[in-house]
Amino acid sequence: SVEQNAYGGAIYAGVYEGEGYIGKINADFVENYVKSVVDGAGGAMYLSAFDTDEIVGDFIGNYIETGNNAYGGAISTAYLTASLDGVEIGKIVGKYKNNYVVSGAYARGGAISFSPYTIVKDGIYGNFEGNYIIVDANSGDGYGGAIGSMGWISEIEGDFTNNYVKGETIKGGAIYVNSIDETEGVGSIKGSFVKNSLDIGTEGFSA
């Protein structure tokens, strides 16, 4: 069989050179998915060097299942370097429920994953419930049951309930934020956090 990476269960937006643009995305995304024996990203939507003014809609039951690395059960941006165009998003508004990532190795963002050089300039506003990551219980890394970001987000505001990560090396049952330099992070976080969790080495994915 051919081992190929898979990106964007419903929408893939990418360019080979320069930068692309989508004005507004206003839609609901339900039970879209990506499956691959190797890497996968963006169960519903994958943006690579594409900017958009806003993403508005409900993301419910979107997912990724991979044998290796996986990013963003609902939304993922591409991993780019500083020498290339990143991704700039104006505002994200919506409900994110029961999105998930199951991976045999590394996973980030049960609902949303942002790679370095991604900017969300006007913030994320929504409710996140029941999103999760499950990685290998013996060797898997999982980061951010709802949101896993290595980019810049001006503000996160919402309610986070029952989001979780299960695996071996795991961080951020609801939100995981990391940076490669001083340009990444989060300006502010507002909302409520109820019954989010980490569960180490008990019920991980088994390839």
Architecture overview:
It is globular, with a radius of gyration of 15 Å. The protein is mostly beta strands and about 210 residues long. The two termini are about 15 Å apart. The strands form 4 sheets. Strands 3, 4, 8, 9, 13, 17, 18, 22, 23, 27 and 28 form an 11-stranded parallel sheet that branches. A 6-stranded parallel sheet has the order 1-6-11-15-20-25, with no helix packed on it. The relative contact order is 0.15. The protein has no helices and 29 strands.
Q: What gyration radius follows from the Cα positions, in whole Å?
A: 15 Å
Form type = globular
Largest sheet composition: 11 strands, parallel
Q: How would you spell out the order of helices and strands?
A: EEEEEEEEEEEEEEEEEEEEEEEEEEEEE
Strand content: over 45%
Distance between the termini: 17 Å
Backbone structural class: mainly beta
Query: Total number of β-strand segments?
Result: 29
Helix content: under 10%
Q: Number of helix segments?
A: 0
Mean pLDDT over the full residue set: 89
Short description:
0% of the residues lie in helices and 55% in strands. It has strands at residues 6-7, 11-14, 20-26, 29-30, 33-36, 40-41, 45-48, 50-56, 59-60, 63-66, 70-71, 75-77, 87-97, 100-103, 106-108, 112-114, 118-120, 124-129, 132-135, 141-143, 147-149, 152-153, 156-161, 164-167, 169-171, 175-177, 185-186, 189-194, 197-200.
What topology emerges from the helices and strands here?
Layout lengths: L5 E2 L3 E4 L5 E7 L2 E2 L2 E4 L3 E2 L3 E4 L1 E7 L2 E2 L2 E4 L3 E2 L3 E3 L9 E11 L2 E4 L2 E3 L3 E3 L3 E3 L3 E6 L2 E4 L5 E3 L3 E3 L2 E2 L2 E6 L2 E4 L1 E3 L3 E3 L7 E2 L2 E6 L2 E4 L7
Parallel strand pairs: 1-6, 2-7, 3-8, 4-9, 5-10, 6-11, 7-12, 8-13, 9-13, 10-14, 11-15, 12-16, 13-17, 13-18, 14-19, 15-20, 16-21, 17-22, 18-23, 19-24, 20-25, 21-26, 22-27, 23-28, 24-29
